Amino acid sequence: MVCGMISQELDALLLRELQADAPYGDKATEAVGLWGEARAVLLAKQDLVVAGLPAALRTFELADAACSWVALCGEGARVSKGTLIAEIEGPVTALLLAERTALNLLQRLCGIATATARAVAAVEGTAAKVLDTRKTTPGLRNVEKYAVRMGGGQNHRMGLSDGVLLKDNHIAAAGSVTAALTAARSRAGALWKVEVEVADLEMYREALSAGAEVILLDNMSDADMAQAVAERPQGMLLEASGGMTLERLRHVADLGVDYISMGALTHSAPAADISMELVQPRKD
């Protein structure tokens, strides 16, 4: 596995992006007539958490097998603005061809890891764990969820096959919280926990009566979440979700929930500021 993806899966992703960026070659590099060998560095232009560096650097190898690289930081490392995080050597044509594809992936994953690290820091000292969601970029779920882990967060479900979570539309289709839970509990494997999403205290109390093992408090007010914590039986796990911001995290964690899931970790994390700069050509 490389950054959450098997190597063939990662190569297919990177090759697709390289092809999309230069379907008929790199016209600017060809027009200038650049040839020969060069060395480049990847530079952090902000404080960030490193995630996805080996995957991004693989792009250069796919552009030209003559490329070689050295990662100067480990995955999950916290680095400051101005840190050199990698060096790459190879044909200048390959370095320039792969630059944007590599940076797009690296900036995306470092941005997610950095946002996650801030969220985890916000709940430090509480019992709450920060989770991601399935709100990921199509084609990038594995690497984006990997970046969450590099930032210190935890993954919720990788996909629909990884757990029984009854959401609002399951409940609507079944007719009620009780009907959905009863049916799910009768069909789920003995080792599967059944989680149900509720939007208010009435649904919450119905879920308790129907035998939910994990309850997701979705877009509930702070007062209602506090009441749900007060009423929960021993062993019941509570997850808070919906409208979670960095500023709100600590208060929600202090209410006593076990998990806080944030779609913003993957769907709204700003890309980290990282650049590639050509430096003195390699000396043979």
Provide a descriptive summary of the structure in words:
The chain is α/β, with parallel strands linked by helices and 284 residues long. It folds into 2 domains: 7-119 and 270-279, Aldehyde Oxidoreductase, domain 3; 123-267, TIM Barrel (Alpha-Beta Barrel). The chain is built from 11 helices and 12 strands. The strands form 3 sheets. The protein has a 6-stranded parallel β-sheet. It has a 4-stranded antiparallel β-sheet with strand order 3-5-1-12, with helices on one face. α3 packs antiparallel against α4, α4 crosses α5 and α7 (177-187) runs parallel beside α8 (201-210). It has helices spanning 7-21, 27-32, 53-63, 92-122, 141-150, 168-174, 177-187, 201-210, 222-231, 246-254, 264-267, and strands spanning 37-44, 48-49, 68-71, 78-79, 84-91, 129-131, 164-166, 194-198, 214-218, 237-241, 259-261, 274-279. Helices cover 44% and strands 19% of the residues. The longest helix has 31 residues, at 92-122.
* Helical coverage, percent range: 40-55%
Name given to the CATH homologous superfamily of the largest domain: Aldolase class I
CATH class of the largest domain, please?
Answer: Alpha Beta
| SSE sequence, one letter per element | HHEEHEEEHEHEHHEHEHEHEHE
Rg value: 23 Å
**Uncertain parts:** none
Q: Please give the alpha-carbon distance between the first and last residues.
A: 34 Å
| Annotation, overall tally of beta strands | 12
Biggest β-sheet, characterized? 6 strands, parallel
Q: Give the second-level CATH assignment, the architecture of the largest domain.
A: Alpha-Beta Barrel
